[in-house]
Write the structure tokens for this entry.
Amino acid sequence: MNLLKKILEELIGLEDNEWIALKTKLKKGECKSKSFLIKEGKIANNLYYIQRGLLRTFHLQDGKEINTYFACDSQFITSFSSFITQTHSFEYLQTIEDSIVYSISYIELMGLYNESSKFEKLGRILAEKNYLCVLDRTLSMQTKNAKEKYLDFIKNYDRKIVQRMPQHQIASFLGIAPESLSRVRKEISIS
């Protein structure tokens, strides 16, 4: 939790009294690999901070899993569209490996927004980062070939995600066939 405090001090200038207000609302969870924190059709009531672990969001299309987001240590994750609108999620949020997360509910976070503009700033920053991630991914999917997508992925994503996320999950996220990803990875390692 000390790292979360440090991150928030740097990101939004969090003061000790604001940290105490937040800390009392955080709930620690230890999740086994392949646990679901959010399921399709349910409302995403919590925002998660990952102390340690690897998580993904995905949806089903014709029975096939389509990955939409990856997060690991010291990052935030939820089904953002469901969390923000408090409507049913079209996504699942699942752990890839045993993980330790801290959660705060939507209602508690809204209460913190009312207590301090710094928490509103945190919400804005998370929303902006999520938007930029979605925009970047959309442009990549529309304009880049498989090799370019993978090179961008390994350049822009946390090393833990690149190294420990199963390759078929990465291929799904990049919108390419697993075989294509294998070819790209082989080509990159040769050159």
